[in-house]
Protein: N5-carboxyaminoimidazole ribonucleotide synthase
Organism: Brumicola pallidula DSM 14239 = ACAM 615
Amino acid sequence: MKVLVYGSGQLAQMMYLAAAPLGVIVSAVDVFTETVVDPVSKKPTGVSLSQAIYDASAITIEFEHVPEHLLLEADKSGKLYPNVASILAGADRVREKVLLSKNKIPNCDYLIINHVDQLDGVVAALGEKVIFKASRDGYDGYGQWRISTAAELLALRHEFSLLDLKKVPLIAEKMMQFEREISLLGARSKDGRVVCFSLAENLHHEGQLHVSVAPITKLSDTLQQKANDIFATLATSMEYVGVLAVELFQCGEELYVNEIAPRVHNSGHWTQQGCSTSQFEQHIRAVLGLPLGSTEVIGVSAMVNIIGCTTFNRDLIGIPNVHLHWYGKEVRVKRKMGHINVIADSHANLGLKLKQLIEFLPLEHFPKLEGEATRLQKSSGFVY
C-alpha cells in the first residue's frame, strides 16, 4: 500500500515513520514545485506526480493550504482523504465559520469584513477587544491583528485599506475571556466510526504553540464528552476521513471552537509516546480503510516545541521517558525545528520531569516551560 501526502514538511515525515511498520510506503509532494519527494531526505524520487497519483492507494495532506488546482487534480482520482470540502473549510476561516454555524457549534462572536467601511460597526457589535484574522493563509500568529481600544482600530484602518479584502476577507472576532486553550484530535474512518484522543491543554507564546499537556488537568468526563460530541458532529457533517484537530476555548464547563485543522496537528504530537496509537498512525489507518487503533493514554504527556533554536544539550535524551523528535531543518526565527515528548505517571511528576528537562535547554527559547512545570508540580491530577 502507498500513501501520497501533499506537503513535504515534518508532518509528512512523521506520517512516513508511523506508516513504515505497517508496511505502508509514504511519498510526499513539494506543492511549490509539484515534485514527488522522499518525506525524510526531501530528494526527488524521479516519479511524476501523475504516476504517483495513479500508484497511490490513498492521497492526503499535511497542511490545508495546498494550491486548489492540486487538490482538484487529486480529487479526480477518488483517493483523496479528507475530501476537498473539508480541506477548504480548514483553509478558509469564512467557510469554517459557515460550517460551525450550520452545525450549531458554539464559537466566538464574529463579523466578516470585506470592505474597510465595515470597520465602523466592529466595536459596537463586538466590543473594544477584538482580534482580526486573515481568512486565508494565516498560521502561528501570522495574519492576525489585536486591538484593545477603539483608537487602536483607527490606527489599523489604513493598514487594512491596503489589503484586498474582496479576495481575502478578514474575520473580526470578539476576544473571549476563556480559562484555557485546549484541543481535541480524533479520527473518522471510511465506514463512519469515530474515535477521539484525550483532550490536550495548549500554551501559546506570540501566537505559536509552545507546550501541550495531555490529558488536561482537571479533566471531567462531562468536558471530554462535550468535546467528543463537537468532534463527531463536525466530522460526520463533513463526511470526513482521517485525523481532524479541533481547537477549543474553555469557559467553565462550556466549550467554544476557535478553529479546525483537517490534518494531523502539532497539539497531537504527544500521542507518539503518550498513546497506544499515534495520531500519525491513526491517520494512515483511516485514509487506507484499515481498522482504527486504540486511543488509550500511556501516562501523562507533555509536548515541548523547539522553536528557532538548535543550541540545546542533546543529552536530554538521557532523562527516562524523554524523547527527541528532530525535523532536520535549517534554523530561522519562529521556525519549528523539532519537539520533545515527556511521559510521567502523574501531572505532578510530569512537572518534576519538565524541571529536569529545563537544565538542558536555553530558556529564552522556551518561555512557557518553567511556569508550566511549576503549575503541574502543584497539580493533583491524574495518576496512572
